[in-house]
Structure formats: structure tokens, C-alpha cells
Write a structure and sequence with these properties.
- It is built from eleven helices and ten strands.
- It has 323 residues and is an alpha/beta fold.
- A five-stranded mixed beta sheet has the order 2-1-3-10-4, with helices on both faces.
- Strand 6, helix 6 and strand 7 form a beta-alpha-beta unit.
- Helix 1 packs across helix 9.
- The chain is globular, with a radius of gyration of 20 Å.
- The two termini are 23 Å apart.
Length: 323
């Protein structure tokens, strides 16, 4: 992938004009140029968490709209780089996609050697499909009844253990930022199978809290086993609208995570334009908006051109962090 250049921008804008489908008088859809064959979509996290739900949701919509089979493949580990490496080493023929997080796509190349891609090369970012803030969560019967309790303990210099979704994962970076911003002593404890494994450790009292997205643990929140102390974002979450944001406690907002659909770099230009047009239409569709709402996620998608701009901005943001 090349970040925004005049040629790429022109190609992306031209792709927006390409129709995804054509409707007949009876209301049925003709097959689009892409996808016209079965697809695989790689997901770098275990089943049931937010990334898995997003990736499978994309696959379900592509499958429904284009009458193809989409196979979701979970490859855990390496802060999602195992899945990314496998997907991006595939042939660039439009049959292999990956759900990339901003961490796996843009931070991991700074801290891990031997990847099939780096921050700007080796992939084609087709569109941003979702965004999810993180929340700070604790066991309902644990030591912290409120965010004020947690802040008081953290301000005292006590070491607090925080479950994260992998060493060097975006949740781990968020813990680092909280430490830097507030002179806290939070210690990340990585759980490579994602938020579900970590929240069980929280409920067992093995760690003090968890930083993660909430979609994968919404069941435990709804059942009353887990409490959200604060949403680490500027706006409340749709699924948990009464939870206060971290800014309400006088703290800075650390990072959340963006999700992108990516393919191997080196696509034929006409295929590339077809894939961009199809994904642009998908992420702006009512169907995808309904999916995000059902997951409790904000309506924060971007078309191909805006995705390139966000990626460029995030690369600058990551440059200030220590690998």
C-alpha cells in the first residue's frame, strides 16, 4: 500500500463512482465484479471478542450480498501479527482479506522484526470498518466500587495489575499512556486470547482490572458480574450510555482502536478499484450501520481516501511513543 499520493487519490475517487451492484426491476441484485469468488478473512483474535464480531460481521454481509462463501479464520497471538502475516503473504488476487487493528497494522512493525509488512508497505487498506474505545473494567465484587476509588489507589503509587489483550497490543499501549499521563504504576498482564480470557481473570481476582473494548464482555456486564469504571473516550458508549467518560474525572483520553479491512499489496489496478468501491459502499450501508449498533459501537467508518488520511495521522501519533 502507498499512502496518499495524487495518483492514489485519483484512483480512489474514481473507484467511488463504480457501482457495487445493479438492481433489476424485480429488486434482485446482479453480481458485482468483486467479490465473485469465495473469500477468506483472517482475524487475529479469538472467537467472541470485539474484533471477531466485527470481522465475522463483514464476512456475513459480503456473503449475503454476493452469494459467496466467506470463511473467517482466527489466528491468535503476536498482537494479531500472526494473522496479518498469513493474510498478507497470500496472493493478491482479491480472495484474502484481514481485519487489521491500528495496533497490529501500525505499531507492531515498530517493535517486531520479520513481518510481511511495515507501516506503509505490504498491505492495501481498503476501508476503516469500525472504531472502538476502551473501557476500564473491574469485578463487581472486587476492591473498586467507583473510578474515584481506583484513582485514589493509583495516585498512592500502588502497583495495580491490568489485564490487556497481548503484550504490545493497543490495550497495553493505553496502560502505558495512563502511566505516563498520571505517574501511575499500572502493570499490564497480557492475555493473548483477548478480552474474554482477561475478564475471567478479573472476576477470579487474579488481576485488579481490565482495559479492553466491551463488546466481547457485554454479557458479564449485563449480568452484573463486571462493572465499567470509566469509558476511555470522549463520548459514552451506545451500549453503556450511563457510564462516565474518563474526561469527567479530569484525566486525559488515551487511545482507542480502529479496525480496517486490508488485503495483500500488489493488486491489479482494476481489481483494486473494484475492491475499494465495494468496501466503500459496504461501510456506508444501512446494513453495516445496523451491525455496528448491534455491537454497541459508534458509527465511525471511513471510506478508502479518508482511511489513508487516518493512517498517516496515526503513524505520526505512534512516532512519539517509545517502541
Amino acid at each position: 500500500m502507498k499512502l496518499t499520493t495524487p495518483l492514489r487519490v485519483i484512483g480512489a475517487l474514481a473507484a467511488l463512482a463504480l457501482p457495487l451492484t445493479a438492481c433489476t426491476a424485480a429488486g434482485s441484485q446482479d453480481d458485482a465484479a468483486w467479490p465473485d469468488s469465495n473469500l477468506e478473512i483472517f482475524i487475529g483474535f479469538g472467537p467472541g471478542g470485539t474484533p471477531d464480531l466485527i470481522g465475522r460481521g463483514i464476512g456475513d454481509q459480503l456473503q449475503s450480498e454476493h452469494s459467496i462463501n466467506v470463511t473467517a479464520i482466527n489466528r491468535t497471538g503476536g498482537a494479531s501479527t500472526i494473522a496479518m502475516n498469513e493474510a498478507l503473504s497470500a496472493e493478491a488476487d482479491g480472495t484474502t482479506l484481514a481485519l487489521a487493528t491500528s495496533n497490529g497494522l501500525l505499531w507492531q512493525p515498530l517493535v517486531e522484526d520479520g513481518l510481511e509488512y511495515d507501516q506503509t508497505e505490504g498491505y492495501e487498506a481498503l476501508a476503516k470498518v469500525a472504531e472502538s474505545p476502551f473501557s476500564l473494567m473491574v469485578a463487581a465484587d472486587g476492591d473498586f466500587a467507583s473510578m474515584e476509588d481506583f484513582i485514589e489507589e493509583a495516585d498512592s503509587g500502588a502497583e495495580l495489575s491490568i489485564a490487556v489483550t497481548g503484550e504490545g497490543a493497543q490495550t497495553d499501549l493505553t496502560v502505558q499512556l495512563l502511566n505516563e499521563q498520571n505517574d501511575w504504576n499500572l502493570r499490564s498482564v497480557p492475555y493473548t486470547d483477548g478480552a474474554g480470557e482477561g475478564i475471567l481473570a478479573v472476576m477470579r481476582g487474579e488481576v485488579d482490572a481490565q482495559v479492553s473494548t466491551t463488546a466481547g464482555v457485554q454479557g458479564q456486564i449485563n449480568s452484573g458480574d463486571v462493572n465499567i469504571l470509566a469509558v476511555l473516550a470522549e463520548e459514552p458508549e451506545p451500549e453503556n450510555p450511563d457510564t462516565r467518560t474518563i474526561g469527567e474525572f479530569g484525566l486525559e483520553v488515551p487511545m482507542g482502536t480502529s479496525f480496517y479491512i486490508v488485503s495483500p499489496d500488489g493488486l491489479d489496478e482494476s481489481l483494486r478499484e473494484e475492491m475499494i468501491a465495494a468496501m466503500n459502499e459496504l461501510v456506508t450501508s444501512e446494513e453495516w450501520a445496523d451491525t455496528l449498533e448491534s455491537l454497541g459501537l459508534p458509527q465511525s467508518t471511513l471510506d478508502h481516501e479518508a482511511t489513508q488520511e487516518e493512517i498517516a495521522s496515526l503513524i505520526e501519533e505512534y512516532a512519539v511513543l517509545e517502541p
